[in-house]
Fold this sequence. Notes:
Low-confidence stretches: none
Number of domains: 1
Distance between the termini: 25 Å
Order of helices and strands: HHHHH
Helix content: 55-70%
Amino acid sequence: MKVLYGEPLSQEELKHYTQIVYSNTLVAIKGLCSALELFGYKAELSAEQAQAYDSLMDCGEFDTITPELGEFIKSLWGSEVFQRTWDRRAEFQIVDSHKVLL
């Protein structure tokens, strides 16, 4: 409600919501990674993208998104393979609004 009415959030609230955004982002990207593998696209990843894929799949859904993880996410999201997977999102479980996070 604070956000809707323009009231500032406390540092504690910001910290709490930051972790929620991190978690939602990691759940979404890992869901896309799983779908990418299910569709047989994993072999099309470059060596750098495959390393990013492996690193993201190894992290937990409650991990902090470090600058390195952020770069891995950007690398994968920008790939043609990931965009093809996103285009098939009706075939697996993902919330459309996650695109905003990614």
